[in-house]
Amino acid sequence: MKINKIIYLLIATFILASCTPDGKEGTTKSEKTKSFVSEKYKFEIDFPRAPQEKTDKISAEGMEIEYTLFSCEKDDKTYFVSVNGFPRAVLAVTSSEILLSSAKAGAMSQLTDAKLINEKEIKYEKYDGVEIEVEGKKEGISTYIKGRAYLIGSNLFQIYEISLKNNVNIKKTNKFLNSFKIRK
Question: Which domains, ranges and CATH numbers included, belong to the chain?
Fold first, then answer.
């Protein structure tokens, strides 16, 4: 189905864009907590510093899909949340399993010799999600990616930390991933 290829390409684009943050400065609630709040997408997360925000659209099959990327870099690591709002036409013909599987495939496509280290189904409240850990090479450098993806309503949220393989701190990575919250 063509729509699945579009979703895969869209998700891969988010991850690729995360490696080169660009855009306007995000806002934080407090420099002490570094808690970032997106009023538009109704989420908050604790970035290590104020993220940059970039919004773009991809047109495919007569549909326009908007995505927004919030990202920052610190200590040779890239932290990001990407949000894409899918039109009802896409959600009507695509299961959450396909969207979540595409998120995993998109993360793996960014590395050469990518190896899936861990994958598990997770939930955020009542919403389906997936958590992955991937190792591989980015531009010849050993790289580690850990992230989560959730389909919440019509939005796919992807939360990732990308680091050098020799610079992984699982405790800090999990702290970042666990800080993601949907605001009501």
Answer: 2-182 (3.40.1000.10)
The pTM of the full predicted model, rounded to 2 decimals, is 0.83
The residue type of 34 is: K
CA distances from 35 to 61, 128, 134, 144 (A): 37, 24, 26, 24
Which residues have CB under 8 Å from 89's CB, separation 6+? 63
Q: How high is the pLDDT of residue 43?
A: 97
Q: Is the dihedral of CA 98, 104, 105, 106 positive or negative?
A: positive
Name residues whose C-beta falls within 8 Å of residue 83's C-beta, 6 or more positions apart in sequence.
38, 41, 43, 67, 68, 70, 155, 156, 157, 158
Helix (H) or strand (E) holding 117: strand 112-124
Given its phi and psi angles, is residue 125 left (phi above 0), alpha (psi -120 to 50 degrees) or beta?
left
